[in-house]
């Protein structure tokens, strides 16, 4: 099974080109945190966070943090957890014989057209 890092509503996958700490910081950037906020949470210098994010941007071949998040999603290094849950629901519905949602019967009432 592939190792993952979960942070908030985001999930990152190890072994796809980025170091674990780079993925952690990338997930936090994807959630909207700044380098100073990340540094405060990890009790490290902001310059350390900036350096890790710079390394991740270099590895992904981008120059902006927004592009870094987009490229990481494109390469399937990170993804929102809601996407993972939606995929699990689809897979479950394909495997299970019984439908996940009950189909509603159409009403017998009809609107008379005049």
Give a quick summary of the entry.
This protein has five helices and three strands. The chain is mostly helical and about 110 residues long.
Which characteristics define this entry?
3-stranded antiparallel beta sheet; mainly alpha; 114 residues; Arc Repressor Mutant, subunit A; elongated; 10% strand
CATH C-level: Mainly Alpha
Give the SSE string.
EEHHHHEH
Our estimate of the beta-strand percent is 5-15%
Note the gap between the termini: 63 Å
Number of domains: 1
CATH T-level topology:
Arc Repressor Mutant, subunit A
- How is the biggest beta sheet arranged? 3 strands, antiparallel
The assigned CATH architecture is: Orthogonal Bundle
Poorly predicted ranges: none
CATH superfamily: Winged helix-like DNA-binding domain superfamily/Winged helix DNA-binding domain
* Strand line-up of the largest beta sheet: 1-2-3
Shape verdict: elongated
Share of helix, binned: 40-55%
| Number of helical regions | 5
| Mean of pLDDT | 84
Would you count the extended β strands for me?
3
Structure characterization notes:
With 114 residues, this protein is mostly helical. It has a single domain, classed as Winged helix-like DNA-binding domain superfamily/Winged helix DNA-binding domain (Arc Repressor Mutant, subunit A, Orthogonal Bundle). Helix content is 52%, strand content 10%. Strands 1-2-3 form a three-stranded antiparallel β-sheet. A hairpin with a 2-residue loop joins strand 1 (4-7) and strand 2 (10-13). The model has no long low-confidence stretch (mean pLDDT 84).
